[in-house]
Amino acid sequence: MSRPEHVVGLAVGRGTGAEVAAVFERVLERFAQLYATEIAVVRSPRIYHSYVSLKHEGGIDEVRALTRQDADHYERFVRARAAAGGRVIFRTAINAQTLYLVRQRLQAVKVDTLDAGGARMLLVRDQAQGFYTGENEHTPGYVRRVTEFSREITEKVLHHALGRARRQWPDEGPARIVMAYKFHLLDGALDAWAEAFAQRHGVDVQVVQPDTVNRNLIAHGPADRTVLVAGNEWADIMHVVLLDRFGAGRQEEHCTRNVHLHADVHGLVEYQTVHGSADDLAGRDLVNPVATVRAAAAVAERHAGCDGAVAAAERALAHLGEAGIRTPDLGGRHSTTAVVDALLDALEGPGPAVPATRTAAEAVAEPVTGS
């Protein structure tokens, strides 16, 4: 049996995870057919908890134990995909504490490109350190959360942001790096690390309080070619605002990607929808599939050789919008399945459809060397 041409990892959480994963696989399979290529999907064998499903399992001790089990398992899955040569995973929403344990261990950042009327901005969220990471210590009536920042991780995040910006704007490079962190709480350490990095790499790095960043964005908008490196305490809250203000669309229709900086999994990209697990919609066939469609198109184009897949998906989505085919959250009356059916009919590729995908079982049955 020949090995698949391209391999994509898939991790599924509870809530609407199964429905989102089904949309992802259907769209990816359609691209494989349109581009006459072979894309195998390798699923993690575990279904990971959402926060809602964890709460149904019992009290604090049960939540802590299951969170740790999910984090350990997902970390092993990511490491296994990287060791097998995999370069991309699509993951549905899972419990945040689980994710941040893994992101801390594997030193993750989340990257988004934004455009404010021609002022280009790169948002790099530091997911590897800070309050969102760390461990909880429980005593009766108290939770003590221990977190840390390090010079090593800060420089890794800055180095990735600088490299990504130079690839994004190869002729000009970044004009500046703005670090949005509550740095006053760190006794000057972050300032010193940023200054040393700036001097070593010859780039303007400014460490700015989050409220000042907010004020400047509201009053003036971003300056062109700004790299905004942000602590997750601020970036998580502001992400939806930045998406809305700077033209990237509704949160429910947006996908984003996480990049792991740890040497063991360096370069492995994890795509996700921005919306959460939406447990209240589970099993109702009503989850908005647009973000998942965009994630599948991005994976197909960037990791499976389907040049033009992103543009093709956007044309198909525009066609659906003109035809009024949308889920109820967008004012429509169509189910998830109906929207995806219509989208698959509207998708166009470079040539005739040729069945070419493999099942996950077939892909798992043989060793994988690349993606």
TrEMBL record:
Q: Which domain of life is it from?
A: Bacteria
Q: Does the keyword Manganese apply?
A: yes
The cross-references to SUPFAM superfamilies, in alphabetical order and at most eight, read: Isocitrate/Isopropylmalate dehydrogenase-like (SSF53659)
Coiled coil segments of this chain: none
InterPro entries according to UniProt: ICDH/IPMDH (IPR050501), IsoPropMal-DH-like_dom (IPR024084)
| PANTHER family (alphabetical) | D-MALATE DEHYDROGENASE [DECARBOXYLATING] (PTHR43275)
Question: Know the name of this protein?
Answer: Isocitrate/isopropylmalate family dehydrogenase
**Species name:** Streptomyces salyersiae
Native organism taxonomy:
Bacteria, Bacillati, Actinomycetota, Actinomycetes, Kitasatosporales
